[in-house]
Amino acid sequence: MFSNFLIGLREGIEAALIVSILVAYVVKLGQQHLLPRLWAGVGLAIALSVGFASLLAITSNELSERAEQIFAGTTSIAAVALITWMIFWMAKRARFIKGQLQGEVDAALDKGSWALAIIAFVAVIREGLETALFLYAGISSSGGTSEPVIGALLGLLTAVVIGVIIYRGAVSLDLGKLFRWTGFALIIVAAGLLAYAVHEYQEAGLLPGEDNVAFDISSTIPPESWYGSLLKGVFSFRPVTTWLEIIVWWAYAVPVLVLFLKKTKRQAPQKQPLAQQAA
């Protein structure tokens, strides 16, 4: 649940930050009459994201067992790719996002009021589709329980509350530090998802090594225990793990963590409070 809460929180804060910047700038320009169209773009993006999540669930239910394993593994790899791209993109672009969005609003107002709705839609749909894909991968890796959904919803609700508070200027957060720490945590989550994808491919017969077990601690950490479920939900941990899963986990986690650490260290001297981003 925690990993999906973290994903919901991270994606939700990004979307809330974008919407807050757009709304604040439109109000600053005295164009409040355009806000309904902006919210229409946001609403459409949310609706399509929910539809995409439903499509993933329906598609998975209609597949055979082997096809479902391949589908779950493939979507998990896609989720890992998006998580990796997202954390590095935000580490690089967070400091410039306000100016970029305001420039897009200025250009949209020159083209017509509905162009503002398109900007809001495009800005939010990316976060929504990513969240839907992450959520499906999280549900698959945790055994199909409802906990990932609850965790993601709690994360999104928390992000909405934070977004409202930020917009009202009641709090100032260090944006760089926030995304830096969530980025570190998400890299660990992504490594677990990648190992889970390998496991699904092994069960489907696409990858070798299903019988080459590195360790079996199911007697110490039963999968049905609360702590076994917690480890599986947060880290996609399996008490019975193959050597290939371990190799893939470390081959992803170590270099990505090192690269992310180097990038965030270079960005660290330039801090941007979150409240100032939305102002």
TrEMBL record:
A GO molecular-function descriptor: ferrous iron transmembrane transporter activity
InterPro entries for the chain: FTR1/Fip1/EfeU
Coiled-coil positions: none
Main location: membrane
Stretches that traverse the bilayer: 6-26, 38-58, 70-91, 112-137, 149-167, 179-198, 240-261
NCBIfam families named among the record's database cross-references: EfeU
Family note: Belongs to the oxidase-dependent Fe transporter (OFeT) (TC 9.A.10.1) family.
Keyword annotations of the record: Membrane, Transmembrane, Transmembrane helix
Topology of this chain in the membrane: Multi-pass membrane protein
Compartment(s) of residence: Membrane
The keyword tRNA-binding is annotated on this UniProt entry: no
GO cellular component: a single term: high-affinity iron permease complex
Protein's UniProt name: Unannotated protein
